[in-house]
Every structure is written in C-alpha cells, then in structure tokens.
Amino acid sequence: MTRASPIDPALQLVGDHASRSSYEAAREALGLDQPLPVQFLRYAGAVLRGDLGQSSSTGGSVAADLARTFPATLELATVAILFGAMLGLALGILAARYPGGWLDAAARVVSLVGYSVPIFWLGLLLLLLFYARLRWLPGPGRLDVVYQYTVVPWSGFALLDTLRAGDLAAFRSALSHLVLPASVLALHSLAGIARLTRGAIVEQLRQEYVLTARAKGAGEWRIVLVHALPNVSGTLLTVVALGYASLLEGAVLTETVFAWPGLGRYLTTAMFAGDAAAVLGATLAIGVCFVVLNSLTDLAAASLSRGRAP
Fold first, then answer.
1. What transmembrane ranges does the database entry give (predicted)?
2. Stretch 12-27: mean pLDDT, rounded?
3. In a 3-state reduction of DSSP, which class is residue 100?
C-alpha cells in the first residue's frame, strides 16, 4: 500500500533538483528498482534483523524513534485503561444489579457518550475548559517546560523517571499532564467495558444456576459477585485487553490534540511527511501489540477456565 502512494521515497531522499543519475542511484540504494515481491521480502528480512529502516522526517532509525516514543504512549494508555476498566466494570456491575433503574440508565448514557463523542473534539473541549478557562490543569505536553531538561529520561515513563530522580514537583507535573488525555481515552474504553459487562452479567443472571442460588437464600450481591462475575471473567479479560490494545492505536488523535510525544503523534507526523518507513514501523509496532495482548489474554482466559473447572 505504501508503494501505491504518490510519494516517491527516492525523490524525498535526493530532493526535487537532483540529477537523474542521483535519483536512480537513490532508487537502487532503497531497492525500489526491484519487483514488489522482492521489495517485500527484503523489508521482511530487515525487520527480522531489527532494522526498520531510516526515517526521512527525523533522520534517525525508525527502531530508535519507536523506542523513544512508544513508552509515552504505553504510559498514557496504561493509566487510561486502569481507570477505564475499574470504572467500566463497576458501572457495568451496578447496571446489571439494578436493571431498569437510574444506574442502568446512567450506564447507558455514559456508554453512548463514550462511543459517540469524537475523541479530538472532547480533548479540545477539555483543554478549553480546564486549561484555558479554569486553569485547573496544565495544557499540552508531558511535562512543564522547566522540568523537561532536568529529568533524565531513564525509562521513558515520565512518572517513573521523575520518581527515580526524587523530584516530587516534576512528578506532580507529569501526573497533572496525564489527567486530561488519560480521561479522554478512559471514557472511550469505559463505554465499551461497561456495556459488555452489563450484558454479560445480565445474561448470566438468567441462567438456571442463579435460580438455584436464589432458592437456597443467596443474596443478590452474592449472586452477582460470587456466582455470575467469575463465569464472565474470561470475556471481561478479553474486552479489557482489546480495549488496551485499541488505546495504543487510538491514541493517535489524543496525542495530536495534547501534543503528547508518543507513538501516535510520531505516526501522524510521519503520515503528513510521507515518511513510509516510519509509517510502516509504527503500524507494525501497533500490530505486534495487538498480537501479544491477544495471545496473553488467551493464555490468561484458559488459565481462568482451568481454575474454575471441578
């Protein structure tokens, strides 16, 4: 697909005013003079060696760029999924416990808002309200400017690096910068988790074993938490894991709005610059995240199933 793009990587390398011989030499160096299947095999072989190519927009290797930007996205997505999963599971359980009530209606409204409101619009709205108007939270970026060059990027995670440096003021700055972008992503994940949690538990409450538990005098909360919830734990684990993977991918718009120096912003910049190597590398990294999380989720779900087996 990148080869179908009108952007010519060789022309980007040598410039518009280069001679024909320089242009052809660049095409040969990049392997663009070879048939498309050969180009694909060469790229795949380079990827297996850990070589993702050179970025034309940054001038460095794509692998080094990903190692620099991915921790910021991972930190943002992790904080967002923690809050989204906790709130989504709690809201879904409450909605299933009181179906048809105001809590159920609130869960439906939150799910509808989380699914319907565009991420970039919500991010801009939160910036306007809490940063520009109320001044309660900091604006775009990951740290205040005063701390950007005083904290050594040891792990790439701002919260860990500031704690390791022993700078509590920088830690508070990093934490406050996380609030708005993490809230936007958390709302998006919360919507799906709450809806699917409610549906799965309500379905379990219609099963015969629930009638048996009620006949034996079990309370409703015990039925929900002790009987129904463990039976849907594998499904919920899959939903949370896929939500986590989608946050790693869906952070593109959020990072662009909040100027978050992560993988999403790197991918957006590369797309606008026509940087094919960077786009391929970032897309490949996101795909690997999906595969790894899916595999780990399958193993965890299988382990839970064996643990429940008589």
1. 76-98, 110-132, 224-246, 266-293
2. 79
3. coil
Tokens at 138, concatenated: 């900091």
Which distant-in-sequence residues (6+ apart) come within 8 Å of 262 by Cβ?
69, 70, 72, 73, 76, 251, 255
For residues 107 and 201, membership in a common domain is answered with: yes
> Do residues 120 and 218 share a domain?
yes
How many angstroms separate the CA atoms of 124 and 122, rounded?
5
pTM to 2 decimals? 0.86
CA angle 236, 239, 243 (to 5 degrees): 140
- Tens of pLDDT, residues 45-75: 999 998 898 888 888 899 999 999 999 999 9
Rounded-to-integer distance, Cα 48 and Cα 40, Å: 12
In three-state secondary structure terms, 54 is strand
Kindly tell me the burial class for residue 301, based on how many C-beta atoms sit within 10 Å of its own C-beta (0-12, 13-18, 19 or more).
Answer: middle
C-alpha 152: how far from its chain's center? 25
Does any domain span residue 209?
yes
What is residue 308's predicted lDDT score, i.e. its pLDDT? 58
- Please answer whether residues 281 and 65 qualify as being in contact, where contact means their C-beta atoms are separated by less than 8 angstroms: yes
